[in-house]
Amino acid sequence: MTSGNESCTAGPTSMSYLTCLTYILEEWTGVEDIGDYLSYAFYILWVLFPLVVVFVLPGVIVILFYVSILWLHIYKRKNEIKEAYSHDVWIAAREMLATIWDGHGRIWHGYELHGVENIPQGPGLVVFYHGATPVDYIYFTARLHIMKKRRCSVVADHFVFRVPG
């Protein structure tokens, strides 16, 4: 085995870095055949990876909800004086939240919006399906705001209004 001053590639046979790491861990911990334990740990990680993915996405959505609410609350407190003299204080807040939610929709779900040119300039009605959470409506309004600088009102189920914030 190598001493403290030698590297794993020195000597008559060179080895891969993973093999070198295994030998170093065996010496450091005193456990023989640590490679078997590591391969078992990697197997368990591989088996449980889908469960981690299933719980990460909803967690990210909930965190984004609360970060958006917190950011709007701070923005409101910061701009209370300006609001008395200007009617367009919330433009920056809308732009920022639209960009955040649009980025989330594009990265996590590949969300795209087609047919925006068919929405009339005046009032219109957009009917769409939403799943268990109203996230697709948030993605829609964010993308519509970025593309057309228009806001959209919603007629929705009572569940939408029970979402915190």
Automatic annotation (TrEMBL):
In its keyword annotation, does this UniProt entry include Membrane? yes
Gene Ontology cellular component?
membrane
Keywords per UniProt: Membrane, Transmembrane, Transmembrane helix
Residue ranges annotated as transmembrane are 43-72
Q: What is this protein called?
A: TMM68 protein
Q: Which organism is it from?
A: Nesospiza acunhae
Q: Which gene encodes it?
A: Tmem68_1
